[in-house]
Design brief:
Layout: H1 3-26, H2 33-40, H3 44-50, H4 54-63, H5 78-94, H6 96-105, H7 115-129, H8 131-138, H9 148-166, H10 172-187
């Protein structure tokens, strides 16, 4: 790697760190690259050399959020894969980084540019987990018409609700219960209309 590539990587990393700090503090709705540049001593010209707009910067930071990755389980059964995913999400949301990311995602104004990065991050996240349902289809556990995205929303939403709204305990039994409900919904026979 040349010196200029190394410098460019260092600059991008400093922008990522600053944007991560801003998103943790203010959330996506109040994010402003101009304010970030001012608070962190960065040049807007340099930021725009790497990201054309705030939306693309926010999307990239969300996708690269520290410790964001959840391992995709492969237990040989959809039922136990869902339990593993629920438990992994519970562990993640219990972490400082997980709570920061959830807090940054709260939607205060649906008219702002911020829906795009949120939706893109969710689509990419679901895409990374899709193998759970692909393998379940190969094993004949679920039909082709099961909507993976909705199944993941059903699995993760109760956990996020407890973290963001109620503060109730998310223990192993809770993860097993919600995973069981999603498994039953995904594997139940579909009625032909």
């Amino acid at each position: 790697m040349s010196g200029s590539e190394s410098t460019s990587d260092e600059v991008r990393e400093s922008i990522f760190i600053a944007a991560h700090d801003e998103l943790s503090r203010w959330g996506i709705d109040r994010f402003s690259a101009i304010a970030m540049a001012d608070r962190h001593g960065l040049s807007m010209e340099t930021i725009r050399q790497h990201w054309a707009d705030d939306e693309s910067l926010v999307r990239d930071v969300i996708l690269r959020w520290p410790k964001r990755q959840i391992e995709v389980p492969d237990t040989g059964s959809l039922r136990t894969d869902l339990v593993e995913l629920a438990a992994a999400m519970a562990r993640y949301t219990a972490s400082e980084h997980g709570r920061s990311l959830l807090g940054a995602h709260l939607i205060k104004n649906q008219d702002q540019f911020t829906l795009g990065p949120r939706q893109a991050a969710w689509r990419i996240g679901v895409g990374a987990l899709r193998g759970v349902f692909d393998r379940a289809r190969e094993r004949g556990e679920v039909s082709r018409d099961v909507d993976d995205r909705t199944a993941f929303e059903l699995l993760f939403a109760p956990i996020n609700m407890r973290v963001l709204l109620t503060g109730e305990v998310i223990d192993e039994q809770y993860c097993q219960t919600i995973a069981e409900w999603v498994w039953r919904a995904a594997t139940s026979p579909r009625e032909v209309e």
